[in-house]
Specification:
- The protein has helices at 52-61, 70-75, 91-100, and strands at residues 12-20, 24-25, 35-36, 39-47, 80-87, 122-124.
- Helices cover 19% and strands 24% of the residues.
- The longest helix is centred in the middle third of the chain and has 10 residues, at 52-61.
- It is built from 3 helices and 6 strands, in the order E-E-E-E-H-H-E-H-E.
- The strands form 2 sheets. Strands 5-1-4-6 form a 4-stranded antiparallel β-sheet.
- It has one domain (4-132).
- By secondary structure, the protein is α+β, with helices and mostly antiparallel strands.
Length: 139
């Protein structure tokens, strides 16, 4: 279980890993109700508001929330198996690193409507790679 007290209050980036055992339809009309296949997914986000990374990740992981961001539709339906934090960094570096390590963009535009650099901020990790390819994203 992820303990919010262990998350930093500083601003920065984070990666949320979700494992899907089977296909999942996300009710996001603007993305044409995408279907995610089974696999390990990482959502790269940033938190530069009050409470920093801790506040944003805690909100994403709450079950009782009104969907605001694309990730809210996934986090309400799938179990987050890992959280990685990168105080002072941006999510684009995480996405670029994961793509360089063989991850794929499963839904263009997912989470990146305000980003000019990322095709999406949700990636499907390469089979068997799981979380290892996000560890060095900002090193």
């Amino acid at each position: 279980m992820i303990d919010a007290d262990d998350l930093p209050v500083e601003a920065g980036a984070y990666g949320l890993t979700f494992r899907l055992d089977g296909p999942m339809i996300l009710p996001i009309a603007t993305l044409r109700k995408p279907v995610l296949a089974a696999g390990d997914y990482v959502y790269a986000g940033s938190a530069f508001g009050p409470g920093g990374i801790r506040a944003r990740v805690t909100r994403h992981l709450r079950a009782d929330k009104k969907p605001h961001w694309h990730i809210d539709h996934l986090s309400a339906r799938a179990w987050c198996i890992d959280v990685r934090t990168y105080p002072g960094e941006r999510e684009c570096a995480l996405v670029a690193d994961m793509l360089a390590e063989g991850a794929e963009v499963p839904v263009p535009g997912f989470g990146s409507s305000d980003c000019r650099d990322c095709a999406a901020q949700l990636v499907l990790l390469a089979a068997g790679n799981q979380n290892s390819n996000i560890a060095n994203a900002t090193e």
